[in-house]
UniProtKB/TrEMBL annotation:
<protein>
    <submittedName>
        <fullName>Aspartate aminotransferase family protein</fullName>
    </submittedName>
</protein>
<dbReference type="GO" id="GO:0008483">
    <property type="term" value="F:transaminase activity"/>
</dbReference>
<dbReference type="InterPro" id="IPR050103">
    <property type="entry name" value="Class-III_PLP-dep_AT"/>
</dbReference>
<dbReference type="InterPro" id="IPR015424">
    <property type="entry name" value="PyrdxlP-dep_Trfase"/>
</dbReference>
<keyword id="KW-0663">Pyridoxal phosphate</keyword>
<dbReference type="InterPro" id="IPR049704">
    <property type="entry name" value="Aminotrans_3_PPA_site"/>
</dbReference>
<dbReference type="GO" id="GO:0030170">
    <property type="term" value="F:pyridoxal phosphate binding"/>
</dbReference>
<dbReference type="GO" id="GO:0042802">
    <property type="term" value="F:identical protein binding"/>
</dbReference>
<comment type="similarity">
    <text>Belongs to the class-III pyridoxal-phosphate-dependent aminotransferase family.</text>
</comment>
<keyword id="KW-0808">Transferase</keyword>
<keyword id="KW-0032">Aminotransferase</keyword>
<dbReference type="Pfam" id="PF00202">
    <property type="entry name" value="Aminotran_3"/>
</dbReference>
<dbReference type="InterPro" id="IPR005814">
    <property type="entry name" value="Aminotrans_3"/>
</dbReference>
<dbReference type="InterPro" id="IPR015422">
    <property type="entry name" value="PyrdxlP-dep_Trfase_small"/>
</dbReference>
<dbReference type="InterPro" id="IPR015421">
    <property type="entry name" value="PyrdxlP-dep_Trfase_major"/>
</dbReference>
Amino acid sequence: MNNRQLFLSHLAQTTDFPLMIEIEKAEGIYMYGPEGKEYMDLISGIGVSNVGHRHPKVLEAIQNQLDKYLHLMVYGEYVQSPQVQLAKALCETLPSHLDNVYFVNSGSEAVEGALKLAKRYTNRREIISCVNAYHGSSHGSLSVGGNEIFKRAYRPLLPGIKNVVYGSFQQLDEITENTAAFIVETIQGEAGIMVACSEYFKALRRKCDETGTLLILDEIQAGFGRTGKFWAFEHFGIVPDILVCAKGMGGGMPIGAFIANKDVMGAFKNNPLLGHITTFGGHPVSAAASLATIKVIQEEKLLEQVETKANLFKKLLVHPKIRSIHNKGLMMAVEFESFEVLKPIIDRAIENGVITDWFLFCDDAMRIAPPLIITEEEIEKACGVILEAIEGR
Ligand code: PMP
């Protein structure tokens, strides 16, 4: 059997329409199939490869760490240089009160940790989250998700969860002194890139302060430079109590974190109650890769280029079949009439060497989230292929 047949026979299938592109090598914004077929990656493994595939600085950091040690001990027991150096570097990108980092393996696990921490710190049970939110696929993170279709089969989920509309000022009144946390994606990703306004975030912050509710911002997709700021919340003039990140954080390696104030994080320490335990969280190789990723974003001044590159996409992607484009930096959704219109466009573009896809909760919009290192010439080339695909070529 060839690899595509093995994929269908032995790999658990997760979607009706797997992209099923076979890749043998990836470098920068490019991926290469078996016969050397070249693809431009415009989705970055869903917001992961922000510094491109196999960035040399990330590879070097991984190689250096491979020569030292792999796993040593469950997270939080031994002093491991990659973890402490990464924690310091992360805190330096953040407002000073966010000074304590808990490393985990994934976005879902970071959300789990953040929710548990909010319950422990506030001693409250209610959590508020948003309609159409995606926070992960584990039971806890699914419980705060905002799409009933995805949740129905798994009920009963966590009790005490309320969904409100993202961006609704009126529904901020749902936040009370019983609310442990309000969890929200700063930019809603899987809903098709929805962006609330600064006034909303400021009102949300005020309401959380008035009621002693912790504000958890999920920047798993929007963080690490994707929107043109290191953290998306910097666009809105607010700061979270707990920040969750993953995806782009590892430069292609698996790692996540929830970050809070030392005082808040201290709620996890009291024995004999369990806080959060993770065997592989903050794996030294992933932590070394993540530290290199932060340096690459800073040294290559990637943030400064995001807005110009996003504007170029918007300037070039003009066609009667494109209804609108919404974005925050290089986190973009290109809207079509329906999935039936969009799907063959995506297929043709892939055939012609440009990879895009759609969103979990928004299947009539094309996802464009390329590595931030994409050049203007590459954007022009990619948009040319997409426009041709729209034309049916
Ligand atoms: N939150 C957001 C906003 C996400 O986009 C995702 C992943 N798509 C997650 C949480 C879950 O992350 P993971 O798949 O690493 O568990």
